[in-house]
Design goal:
The complex is a heterodimer of chains A (187) and B (495). Chain A has 187 residues and is mainly alpha-helical. Helix content of chain A is 67%, strand content 0%. The longest helix of chain A has 23 residues. In chain B, 37% of the residues lie in helices and 9% in strands. Chain B has 14 helices and 8 strands. In chain B, α7 runs parallel beside α11 and α12 packs across α14. Chain B: Keywords: Transcription, Transcription regulation.
Chain lengths: 187, 495
């Protein structure tokens, strides 16, 4: 995908949007609680990626988590901007930023946890199967299904602990917040 | 044992439901199963009418959507149904018709569960994914085991983090704005051909609709409608509509050398490049006739779940757009065979965008979702294609004796009687159609009839969704001519 974007393939840009727009918009909306701001952030994030396809380094993690990190950064930037203009209350802003950080860590944990654990959580949470049905669906014993659900949630619960810098899964190098008119070739 | 004191921890509640509160009254938190507040529970507020768990129904999103599709849905007959708030059904433990007694104190439900088993149940318990008997046993256990109680709280809180960030209220028009903004900042070196733009946009809109609907709608009934002298319809399911789109979209992929759907997915796709194309002959070649092709594709893929059919369709749409982007204008005039008819590739892409919209609108209507018409630029291309096809269709119908208006013999390139098709609304415009022969020259001077109608109405007529007699059209001039043109428009539709 990165190569295709770098090549200037419009179709790749469309596919990128189709795959990640709801993530970007959802994260932005969660932080800002403002639909128009989320639209704007979505434009900025995709604009940034399209203009700077080389800014993503696969060594830092998945494309998805990089995009989430950029979005997070940009949304927090917009929120603080509003705060400094007196449009929102600082405590509220800090709470939202914290919640958004937790949600972003949780999202990272879910997408990077071992597939068997994720599959078990999907069945129990999204499909609302009980663990016996989940065990049948996964072709494992009931004890194994119980184990996977418990282990998956244990992993996920680490998102709630305040992350110190080193342990933060979002260790991508994220660009500074994007001014709406970022200069061409900015790294 | 110095575990936390649990409010309400030893009986006095009924059936495990209706508990709430998280210690804001100064009393230590009581572990109960999932937080049922609107924000944290998995989205679902319409469980009475459809299988549980539908993100689009989450009131937290303020979704404007209408009710679910299936008024006949009966949870009592659905083995997978689990009530969202109340206790679990008790029959899963095989305890007989009454299930375990409702008062935990009386039944001592933890009897028979050792500490190890109870601990292993904590994840399932936090997810409300164990039997009621087990849930009661766990809760009983938590009143006496601090370590498990602490973990139970933590896991239960973690469940709320499973809530996905993906938004469901993404404005479908945002896509065009975002892409336009991007291309304004850095022009594409490999652009999507303009004639493939509507297809790209319509596929994205349908995909967004399907994502909103989620996996509980694949079997919802939808009418496939078309016009064969009279309205025809066939009842299918949402997933069959998607497979139908896949089958017919793949006709467009044939001259580009793309594989047939249902072929070997492991085989690398042949790609068109610089106009040098290779025709691939897959093992299972589907018939070209649209109906036969659809039926063959359904037969080959009816074992696949809706979500898989959706991703196969979507992958093919992305592939088609990508392939023509690389191939460039050189492929625009390639011929796409539809069995009975043929279209140049650039028109076939507009036709497929049109079909994608119409079927998406059918699906949306069937499940009571809003669905907007395409962007004006796309609509204009669709109307234009229909208007260009009309003279030939009219001539065919004339030969088949299906018209009533008299015709004159006019040599190709000579002026003949014309109809002015005036399309109002977004994407509208004016088209002069030659009436005497497809090769005749249409002109304002020779106009004998004038029809005016809305662009979306016209498209719905061309798709067989409205009958010619029911169309709200302004009509001036030769009535017989107008009737013939309206029927010819309706006959453009096919399944």
């Amino acid at each position: 995908m990165q190569q295709r974007l770098a090549r200037g393939e419009e179709a790749a840009l469309g596919e990128l949007y189709d795959r990640y727009a709801s993530l970007v918009h959802g994260l932005a909306h969660r932080v800002t609680a403002d639909h128009d701001a989320a639209d704007l952030i979505t434009r900025e994030v995709f604009g940034y990626i399209w203009e700077n396809p080389d800014a993503y380094d696969p060594k830092g993690g998945s494309l998805r988590s990089w995009i989430a990190a950029i979005t997070q950064r940009q949304a927090v930037h917009r929120l603080r901007q509003n705060e400094s203009r007196g449009r929102s209350n600082p405590d509220e802003v800090e709470t939202r930023v914290r919640e958004a950080n937790t949600a972003a860590r949780a999202d990272f944990i879910v997408t990077s946890m071992p597939e068997p654990l994720r599959a078990a959580l999907e069945l129990a949470y999204r499909e609302r199967l009980d663990y016996r049905a989940a065990a049948a669906g996964l072709g494992v014993s009931e004890a194994e299904a119980r184990r996977r659900l418990r282990l998956g949630l244990q992993l996920l619960s680490t998102a709630m602990e305040p992350a110190d810098e080193a342990a933060d899964p979002l260790r991508h190098r994220v660009p500074p917040p994007i001014g709406y008119r970022s200069r061409r070739g900015q790294r | 044992m110095s575990g936390p004191a649990f409010r309400d921890g030893d009986g006095g509640r009924e059936g495990g439901g209706g508990r709430g509160g998280s210690g804001d009254d100064g009393v230590p938190r009581v572990p109960y199963q999932r937080d049922r507040s609107a924000r944290n529970r998995p989205p679902d507020d319409d469980t009475r009418r459809r299988p549980p768990h539908h993100p689009a129904r989450d009131p937290a999103y303020g979704s404007p959507r209408g009710p679910a599709y299936d008024p006949a849905y009966d949870p009592a007959r659905d083995a997978t149904y689990r009530p969202p708030y109340g206790p679990r059904p008790v029959d899963e433990t095989g305890d007989g018709p009454q299930g375990p007694a409702v008062t935990p104190r009386q039944s001592r439900p933890d009897a028979g569960f050792d500490h190890h088993t109870l601990k292993s149940l904590l994840g399932a318990w936090a997810l409300t994914a164990c039997s009621r008997e087990e849930a009661l046993a766990v809760e009983e256990h938590l009143t006496g085991c601090a370590a498990c109680a602490e973990e139970a709280l933590r896991l239960r809180d973690a469940v709320s983090l499973l809530h996905r960030e993906e938004t469901l209220d993404l404005d479908p028009l945002l896509r065009a704005r975002v892409l336009e903004g991007c291309l304004g900042r850095r022009p594409a070196r490999i652009p999507v051909p303009e004639w493939a733009g509507p297809y790209d946009a319509e596929a994205a809109r349908l995909d967004a609709l399907l994502r909103d609907l989620g996996d509980s709608y694949w079997k919802a009934p939808v009418e496939l409608r078309w016009f064969e002298g009279a309205p025809v319809s066939r009842r299918v399911t949402v997933e069959q509509v998607i497979a139908h789109l896949t089958a017919l979209d793949s006709l467009v992929g044939r001259p580009l050398g793309l594989p047939e759907p249902g072929g070997d997915p492991a085989a690398p796709p042949e790609r068109a490049s610089r106009g040098r194309l290779r025709r691939v002959r897959p093992e299972h070649e589907l018939p070209l006739d649209p109906w036969e092709r659809t039926a063959a594709h359904w037969a080959a893929q009816n074992h696949l779940p809706g979500a898989t059919l959706r991703s196969l369709w979507r992958e093919q749409t992305h592939n088609l757009v990508r392939t023509v982007s690389f191939a460039g204008q050189g492929v625009a005039a390639l011929t796409v065979e539809y069995g009975v008819a043929a279209l140049p590739l650039r028109d076939a892409f507009v036709d497929r965008a049109f079909e994608c919209w119409m079927h998406a609108a059918d699906i949306a209507e069937a499940v009571d979702y809003p669905y907007e018409p395409p962007a004006p630029r796309s609509l204009n291309r669709m109307v234009d294609l229909a208007a260009r096809l009309l003279p030939d269709v009219l001539a065919e119908r004339r030969r088949a004796g299906l018209t009533t208006s008299p015709s004159r013999l006019v040599a190709a390139g000579r002026p003949g009687r014309s109809l002015l098709l005036e399309i109002d609304g977004p994407g509208g415009g004016e088209w002069y159609l030659p009436l005497d022969s497809p090769g005749a020259l249409a002109s304002p001077e020779e106009t004998v009839a004038h029809v005016a109608m809305d662009s979306v109405e016209f498209c719905r007529l061309a798709a067989g969704r409205i009958e010619p007699e029911q169309i709200a059209a302004g009509q001036l001039g030769d009535r017989a001519v107008i009737r013939d043109v309206l029927f010819a428009t309706a006959s453009l539709s096919r399944m």
